[in-house]
Amino acid sequence: MTSSEFGAIIGPVVGDDGLARPPWAASDPLLREYYDTEWGMPVRDERGMFERVCLEGFQVGLSWRLILQKRDALREAFRGFDPDELVCMESVEHLLGDASLIRNRRKLEAVLTNARATVALRGEGTHLGEFVWSYQPDTTPAPRTMDEVPTRSRESEQLARDLKARGFTFVGPVTMYALMESTGIVDTHLVGSWRRGCSGVWGAEA
Fold this sequence. Notes:
Elements: E1 13-14, E2 20-21, H1 29-37, H2 46-59, H3 64-77, H4 83-86, H5 105-121, H6 128-133, H7 154-165, H8 173-182
Antiparallel strand pairs: 1-2
Helix pairs in contact: 2-3, 2-5, 2-8, 7-8
Pfam family, one: Adenine_glyco
Keywords: Metal-binding, Zinc
GO biological process, one term: base-excision repair
């Protein structure tokens, strides 16, 4: 989910359950469930981070709701986003006709490219989860409205450069900032949202 999808000057919206959420998660059941249970919670393991990198890449130019709708099918097609399994997959040709997936050849091929890069990263004595978390900033934003939510940062720009240098693709600075938001590295829950501070990485007043 990128902040630019809801760029208006809008603060938290209180739902029928009395809980305040950002406008993008206020009404749609699928997005609301995702926001309430997953978005912004820490993801530190290699496979989990690899899946998020891939899903954020699929989201480029599309809605996050569409990615959530297709996530289970993508998981099945890409062997649970296990990079060790995917380095053995030679082609995505058999996936191009599958309407349950995102049928964009470059994005599908990026999963295999990024799997190889993820495995190669271990040679540096780290894994993808640790590597991405090493770009955690010293402070996190405290947006009160959607227009105050950043779409990129100095850290996301550096992360994008460093991942690209290691062979990753579909990892631009805006996409990497969205990754940092979704995995708890920064907390861009709106001030006043019931989920602000939920990750335990940053306090509710951070």
